[in-house]
C-alpha cells in the first residue's frame, strides 16, 4: 500500500470489503439454504465409448432468491472452510438416495449414481453407518451408488477411514478418486485406499491434446491406473479432439463432459435414460 499510493490502497481496501461482505452474505444464506428448499441436484451422465450411459455424477445446485444461482465452486470451499460440509453431504445423500428409490419404484432403469463426499464426512466414524442406514431405509442397493472423493479428503488418512471405505466397497459401492493430478497427489493413495476409478481432471483432458508435458502426464495416469487394475473416468470431455485423445489411450475409460451431456435436471436425465432403453 505504501508504494502504490493512497488511491490504490483505497481500491484494494474496498475490494477486500466487498469480498468480505459477499463471504458473510453467502455464509449466512448458506445456513438457511436447506431449510428454505434452495438446494437441488443435477445429474451428469457418464458414458462408455460405445455411447451408452453407464453411470452418473450427482452435482449440487444452490439457487438463492436474492443472490441468484451460486456455483458449488464458490460455496463448497466456503462450507469446507467453515466446517459445514457434513450437513451438506447429508442433504446430498438423502436427496440422491430418495431419487434412486423413486426411480426404482417407477420401474425405471437406473444406473449407478456417484455422489461427491467431503473429507469432513469421510473422516467421521459415523459416516458408513449414516450411509448404509439411509440405503437400507430406502431399500436402495449399494450397487446403485458410488462416492467421489478428492485427494484432499484423503490427506487426513487413517486406518478407520480406510476400513470404512473397504467396508462400503465390499458391499458393492464403487469409489472414485476425483480431480486426480491437480492438487495434493500422492501416489501412495492409489494403493492405500480402495479405489475403483481414477477421475482424470478436466485440466488434463483440455491440455493433453495441445501441451506435450500434459499429454505425458495424462498417458502416465492411464498406464498407472491400468496396471493397478482401476478404471479411468475422463472429466471435461468437450470436443471431438478430447474424445479422440482419450480413445487413443484406452478404449475402456468412461467419458463425462459437455460433448455428450451437460449436468441436467432430473426430468432431462430421465429422458436421456429412457432414450437408452428405446
Ligand atoms: P467436480 O466434482 O470436479 O465436478 C465436475 C465439475 O465439472 C462440475 O462442475 C461439472 O458441471 C463440470 N463439468 C462437467 N463436464 C464438463 C465439461 O465438459 N467442461 C467443463 N468445463 N466443465 C464440466 P460444478 O457442478 O460447477 O461443480 C464444481 C465442483 O463443486 C465439483 O467439482 C465439486 O468439487 C463441487 N461439488 C459439486 N456438487 C457437489 C456436492 O454435491 N457435494 C460436494 N461435496 N461437492 C460438490
Ligand atoms: Ca466429482
Ligand atoms: Ca472432478
Ligand atoms: Ca474438478
UniProtKB/TrEMBL annotation:
EAL domain mapped to chain residues: 23-277
Protein origin, superkingdom: Bacteria
Name of the protein: Phosphodiesterase
Portion of the full-length sequence here: 293 to 570 of 570
